[in-house]
Amino acid sequence: xxxxxxxxxxxxxxxxxxxxxxxxxxxxxxxxxxxxxxxxxxxxxxxxxxxxxxxxxxxxxxxxxxxxxxxxxxxxxxxxxxxxxxxxxxxxxxxxxxxxxxxxxxxxxxxxxxxxxxxxxxxxxxxxxxxxxxxxxxxxxxxxxxxxxxxxxxxxxxxxxxxxxxxxxxxxxxxxxxxxxxxxxxxxxxxxxxxxxxxxxxxxxxxxxxxxxxxxxxxxxxxxxxx
Amino acid sequence: xxxxxxxxxxxxxxxxxxxxxxxxxxxxxxxxxxxxxxxxxxxxxxxxxxxxxxxxxxxxxxxxxxxxxxxxxxxxxxxxxxxxxxxxxxxxxxxxxxxxxxxxxxxxxxxxxxxxxxxxxxxxxxxxxxxxxxxxxxxxxxxxxxxxxxxxxxxxxxxxxxxxxxx
Lengths: 227, 167
Fold this sequence. Notes:
Chain A is mainly alpha-helical.
């Protein structure tokens, strides 16, 4: 059987199963990303706060999580927590692990974005008597968002790709479904290539979006400097 | 090349690894887990380093290139003697960061049975039922490797930053 003929025969069987599994992949990615975005902001704000203890806690969290592999974190949560009498499903273990992981990176992205906003903006707002919280909320953050957007989308792509790790603890997402299909049909090249295509269908538009956003933000910056 | 970069950036490393390790076996090409792991990680890693190089080269002011050409240097020499030496300074910090990322990402090759840190920790955990202890130990070992590297890269960045601002 030639390479493509295999697809003609099995595509109808494989595709619906993989497509259903990719919904699971998307769910994992969305939940993990929401966690990263919210928790990451908390860490970033803690890192910029005036309380030294809060700052130290945030720094050590970021450094620790960035220093260990996502897979090790996933194993710690999934295999480790039950030892402390905490039962967690494979799905939520993945969301929590990738969310914690993403939050560490996200906090760095927020921080870079906040630091990129000119200090004069903060000083000016404080000078006209706005409270520190209001300065952050109405002056700094709105300007930081366009700067933060491209790296955030990149992180989204990475998190989506990292959900493949969930297959190792048997979450029924794309790679795990593929493993089942491979052991059933023994067509690893065909099936894993199909997986790659499914991932690309989602990530490719996101990669293009990052490019477009980067160009867009870059344009805004150039306009700035000519002023 | 840009297609390769986009394809690799858009596919999980695990998928690339499985295509190389399990996929090739469909054509009777048998790779040992270790070389398969090296090829898999390198194939997806190269896409990222390519982007870093590109950013580094683009960061060098265009006038440098034009000046080199204007005094009659051939384009290859301009690249080699003018652009690349300056780009290296820009490139080194992100490459160091990427190296740390790759160090951690190498944990995924445990899935194709390469006996590295994560694999060993997991199997010891399974054998002794002390999963938490072993996984914490594994995490500590990764930290012991990546924190010094992160520290070094931060120092490097600082030093290179001095150069850049002086230039």
